Amino acid sequence: MSEDIDVSSRPVPTDTALLKDGDWLPSVNFNDRRPTVNLSGSGAIQRPTVKIDLLLLHYTATPTNDYALQLLTTPEGGVSSHYLVDGRGRIIQMVAEKHRAWHAGESEWAGEADINSCSIGIEIQNQGAALTRLPAYGVAQMAAVTELCADIVKRHKIHPKRVLGHSDVAPHRKQDPGAHFDWAGLARRGIGLWLDPESSGDNACPDLQEALLMDLQNKFVAIGYGLEVTGELDQRTVQVITAFQRHYRPSRVDGKPDFQTIRLVDQLLDIIKA
């Protein structure tokens, strides 16, 4: 999208009924979606097509909602998302869902590197890792996020395994939506997946032999994480383990391949394959 094109007269999208008057604030940062390689329910690779089949959640990492809007709508910011949920639970749309918002950046999931073309992006106002202590999400804010997510996954028929955080698709550079995000609450509404860490054993680490690490890395690849199978506990593997724990075991995020983490990986694979 050219920055000299006037977006002020663009019609309000009719994607969702959750918007209120004044909650369409168009961004100049968007373009057309491109064909992506998607996976069928059986895991088979389909021919490239333009398809929305992934929901990606972020935090803004900004001190205020106004600053987030400035970044997400102006050419100087250079980024965007389809929606922003502010601290009070107000839902703002900036890019029509038919268009490609610029929210995922350098990322990968299930072999696809153009996450922007196959996803809907939601930014949630939260300073995140910009603060020493990660701030929690408000009750009204999470309620709005949940309703918006439920609306999107229903309309686009997005599978729970394709509801992800930015850190899942970009574990080498992102932490959002962070360890305080209520993935369990979303899962209770049928949005995304959640596991039960308490039933998954202790936190001791096994003997990290090459065969075990290769098996664990192959399992992460089967889930969707972008990872090279090396048989070594390299930096990328630690980043993927950290991202997985942040999503599915936020009580302890340390990047260590302990027994509990390995069992949770097996749990997730069983759910995905069922």
Describe this structure in words.
This protein is an alpha/beta fold and 274 residues long. It folds into two domains: 30-188, Peptidoglycan recognition protein-like (Lysozyme-like, 3-Layer(aba) Sandwich); 197-273, PGBD-like superfamily/PGBD (Muramoyl-pentapeptide Carboxypeptidase, domain 1). 31% of the residues lie in helices and 10% in strands. A five-stranded mixed beta sheet has the order 4-3-6-2-7. A two-stranded antiparallel sheet has the order 1-5. A hairpin with a 5-residue loop joins β3 (83-85) and β4 (91-93). The radius of gyration is 19 Å and the shape is globular.
Summarize model confidence as the mean pLDDT.
91
The CATH level-2 architecture of the largest domain is identified as 3-Layer(aba) Sandwich
Q: N-to-C terminal Cα separation, in Å?
A: 41 Å
Question: Would you tell me which CATH topology of the largest domain applies?
Answer: Lysozyme-like
Order of helices and strands: EEHEEEHEHEHHHHH
Number-wise, the strands total 7
Strand content: 5-15%
How many DSSP H or I helices? 8
Low-confidence stretches: none
Structural class: alpha/beta
For the largest beta-sheet, the strand count, sense and barrel status come to: 5 strands, mixed
* Superfamily (CATH H level) name of the largest domain: Peptidoglycan recognition protein-like
Overall CATH class of the largest domain: Alpha Beta
The outline comes out as globular
* Sheet with the most strands: spatial strand order: 4-3-6-2-7
Number of domains: 2
Range of helix content: 25-40%
Rg calculated over all Cα atoms: 19 Å
